Amino acid sequence: IMLHSTLALSLLLIAVSSNLAMAIKKEKRAPQTLSRGWGDEITWVQTYEEGLYQAKKSNKPLMVIHHLEDCQYCQALKKAFAENEEIQEMAQNNFIMLNLMHETTDKNLSPDGQYVPRIMFVDPSLTVRADITGRYSNRLYTYEPQDMVFLIENMKKALRLIQTEL
């Protein structure tokens, strides 16, 4: 009987401590709700207006990701985006980042329609870079999970274009 209760007690302790560990972990990540799964190490701005302000102030391009929670293509892209170390690192260090689940009033962000997922770049001069497009002629600013190398190229292009145009 003694052994039985010791075992029960240690199992109880293990359960409590792992729940506590999970609670602590959750606590630590709580402020990062703006990431919505696109990358918890990235600093995200909350609104398009804030993004434009930060881009101008920091001289970094703004990257705007339009997506919806119940869109399977968005989910697949989000997973590939979040798992790609080079993208995460560039997003954190070289870009002002915004992911939106609603459209903005800026029509320049939907030059060929309001579809998701859609990724657009805005220069620190506050010019929407409609010239930085993906691989698909019917949806110019969409990317698929297998297009991460292409997205990296476009991120580098957005950075290069700032340097050459200022």
Automatic annotation (TrEMBL):
- Keyword field: Signal
Tell me where on the tree of life, at the top rank, the source sits. Answer: Eukaryota
Asked if the record carries the keyword Signal, the reply is yes
Task: Give the UniProt entry's GO cellular component terms.
Answer: endoplasmic reticulum
- One short Pfam name that applies is Thioredoxin_7
Q: InterPro entries under this entry? A: AGR/TXD, Thioredoxin-like_sf
Q: Name one GO molecular function term.
A: dystroglycan binding
Q: Which residues form the signal peptide?
A: 1-23
Q: Which protein family is it in?
A: Belongs to the AGR family.
Name of protein: AGR3 protein
Could you tell me which species this protein originates from?
Leiothrix lutea
- In the UniProt record, the gene name given for this protein reads Agr3
